[in-house]
Amino acid sequence: MAERVGRAEPLEYGTAEAVSAFGLGLHHVQLALPPGEEEVCRRFYVDVLGMTEIAKPPVLAARGGLWVRSDALEIHLGVEEDFRPARKGHPGILVGDLDGLAERLTSRGVEVTWDGNFPGHRRFYVKDCHENRLEFLSPTPE
Questions:
Q1: Could you tell me how far CA 1 lies from the centroid of its own chain?
Q2: Three-state SS at 123
Q3: pLDDT per residue over 30-70, tens digit each?
Q4: 42 touches 53 (CB < 8 A)
Q5: What SS3 class is residue 38?
Q6: Distance, CA of 48 to CA of 45 (rounded, Å)
Q7: CA 38 to each of CA 7, 35, 87: distance values in angstroms, whole numbers, following the listed order
Q8: How confident is the model at residue 2, as a pLDDT?
């Protein structure tokens, strides 16, 4: 692939041309939590969402927080002294069984807000236990 010089026009959303020479990928998403709220986060991310807690490396565990993983998704919840929830910025989490996840969340008292404004996808939003916004989406078959 030839390297572009300058800024090119935006590519169409579904293009496969959006690649770099660096092999970029996402390792994890970082969200914040208030100090001392790890157990509340466990109840949401482990008990409600069904993710698995991952032990933090000892040097990082001293800072508090919680790391969770499930399938190809890893979320790091870090303690933030001046915590404010992420109400606009959010992870967009791909889901294989979107309806099943929505049902699980709803059955556990989590409000699911469906949004049909992303062409080619079905999606919904939820707020985690500290009002951080999470988006769950699945491509629609063509």
A1: 30
A2: strand
A3: 999 999 999 999 999 999 999 999 999 999 999 999 999 99
A4: yes
A5: helix
A6: 6
A7: 43, 8, 20
A8: 52
